[in-house]
């Protein structure tokens, strides 16, 4: 019993570190897709457009990590590999979705996201990011 608890706790730590790492990669992805420094846009300039896009990205990655862990069938190695693989796939698909949305809409989406005025395109972009993550979640299950 104690051994199972310790094993579960250890696995939680490992999955947690991997999940936080993937969420940090998501932060880096949104930072790459938008002009300027994301941390300044959100925390200094209080840009709601950038904040909304990052929030959708982080929730999407968390959803992918959650689904990968949930479907790992008690096989730690398989679950960990699945989490990393599908997390990276999710990030790539989110980036692709952003680029495609940028191509389909007028102007540059990154500049719209960085605009200080709230813009409906930020909501659409956030929904696109989260939707891309949900597609990956469905592929895991």
Describe what this molecule looks like in 3D.
With 141 residues, the chain is mostly helical. The chain is 84% helix and 0% strand. The protein has 6 helices and no strands. 34% of the residues are buried.
What is the makeup of the main sheet? none
Cα distance, first to last residue? 29 Å
Query: What kind of oligomer do you see?
Result: single chain
Mean pLDDT across residues: 93
* Classification by helices and strands: mainly alpha
Regions with little confidence, pLDDT below 50 for 5+ residues: none
Task: Give the CA-based shape.
Answer: elongated
SSE pattern, N- to C-terminal: HHHHHH
Q: What is the number of helical segments per DSSP (H or I, 4+ residues)?
A: 6
**β content, as a range?**
under 5%
Q: Give Rg in angstroms.
A: 17 Å
Number of strands: 0
Helix content: over 70%
């Amino acid at each position: 019993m104690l051994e199972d608890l310790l094993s579960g706790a250890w696995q939680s730590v490992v999955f947690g570190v991997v999940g936080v790492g993937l969420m940090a990669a998501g932060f880096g992805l949104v930072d790459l897709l938008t002009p300027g420094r994301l941390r300044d846009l959100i925390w200094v300039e209080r840009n709601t457009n950038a904040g909304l896009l990052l929030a959708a990205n982080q929730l999407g990655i968390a959803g992918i990590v959650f689904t990968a862990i949930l479907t790992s069938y008690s096989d730690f190695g398989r679950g960990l590999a699945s989490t990393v693989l599908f997390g990276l796939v999710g990030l790539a698909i989110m980036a692709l979705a952003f680029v495609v949305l940028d191509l389909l809409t007028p102007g540059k989406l990154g500049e719209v996201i960085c605009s200080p005025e709230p813009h409906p395109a930020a909501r659409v972009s956030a929904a696109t990011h989260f939707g891309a993550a949900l597609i990956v979640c469905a592929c895991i299950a």
